[in-house]
What does this fold into?
Amino acid sequence: MNNSILILAAHPDDEVLGCGGTIAKLTENGINAHVAFLADGVSSRDRVNEEFLEEIKLRRKAAQNACDILGVKSVSFGELPDNQMDTIPLLDIVKNIESLITKYSPREIYTHHIGDVNIDHCITHRAAVTACRPQPGNSVDTFLSFEIPSSTEWQLPSSSQIFAPNWYVDISKTLDCKLAAIEAYRDEMREWPHPRSLQAVKHLAHWRGSTIGVDAAEAFMLGRNLV
It folds into this structure.
């Protein structure tokens, strides 16, 4: 039986914020989790060349540390430009994702919500949907979109599709693991009450949990599920 999942994240730290507790829960149960980052997460920042290269190096090291904590089997880094993925032909991004699907044969895909404020999140979602079109032989049975604090909830309801979760994962036992992985990205986190603060991430997990009667949960929107 296929026991692999693929997490398609625009930037390093999105994987933890969006579904870190779910990743930890699945890997603890023997699932092979593969994380693929499409953009560098750094190049949109105002840096000189030396600082830029060092920041990419540090961000990738943080990503590897975070994924090790979550029990991820493999991590790959793309080099698409940060916050400029809309300047790249969508077909190129789709082909990149198709190659990852061919390589790992995942039964489940976890990626961004289409309505996020961040343009890279939206492009990642669109490309993933195309790459996962249900053709004969495609390994992907389940397509799930996660939420990212300071991107998903910042979108105006009149501007795009709102995040309305209909799939939840109980992460009561793996929330601490998620928070430990987030600590690897401490330089990317903010102070409370920013939604990308550690305290806000904990509040969100407990709020999502309370809506389904558990201590902590991660919420998703189900795009497709084949049973």
Observations:
- The chain has a mean pLDDT of 95.
- Residues 142 and 225 are 4 Å apart (CA to CA).
- The chain has six helices and seven strands.
